[in-house]
Specification:
By secondary structure, this protein is mainly alpha-helical. It is built from seven helices and no strands. Helix 1 packs across helix 2.
Length: about 160
């Protein structure tokens, strides 16, 4: 067990991961990758750089998901996802949606859906290893403010993209 009672991977409810990813236009996913690499580095005491692994997320997506699957499997936590297929789906959605015109390009925000089964396993693993950790399921005042601002920007982007030139 983790001696400092810190979760092995980033705890966040799937609802919060989904909502925050949408309203931050995908930046919460970047934060998600960074926090997972940061926690894994602390657990393994390795010399990896969470920053660079996040910057080059497309290259390091699979290794992170494979680590999560490995940890889950070693602790008999059911991990109903394939690291390869989640990586392909996540990168594929981002790449494909980049070619779409606005407002359809905003479908890129749905790339978070690929990460939801991974987060389910992460949450189960964290609960098994540290039963009383903070599951990060509540929306803080900062989250709520971010949602308000993000929703207004998202609605504005959709309206502007639908207006004739």
């Amino acid at each position: 067990m983790n001696e400092n009672s810190q979760p092995i991977f980033f705890p966040v409810s799937r609802l919060k991961l989904f909502v925050m990813s949408i309203v931050t236009l995908g930046f919460y996913q970047v934060f998600w990758f960074y926090k997972n690499w940061q926690l894994l580095k602390a657990e393994d005491e390795s010399n990896i750089s969470p920053f660079w692994r996040t910057v080059f997320g497309a290259l390091y997506c699979y290794p992170l998901l494979a680590q999560i699957k490995k940890w889950a499997k070693s602790r008999s936590v059911y991990a109903n996802f394939s690291p390869l297929w989640v990586t392909v789906a996540w990168i594929g959605i981002i790449k494909f949606c980049g070619y779409l015109p606005m407002p359809y390009k905003l479908a890129v925000l749905l790339s978070v859906i690929a990460l939801l089964p991974v987060q389910k396993s992460v949450n189960e693993l964290n609960t098994l290893m540290i039963p009383y950790h903070d599951p990060n399921s509540r929306f803080s005042i900062w989250n709520i403010l971010t949602i308000a601002v993000g929703c207004s920007l998202l609605v504005r982007a959709i309206i502007v993209s639908l207006m004739p030139d």
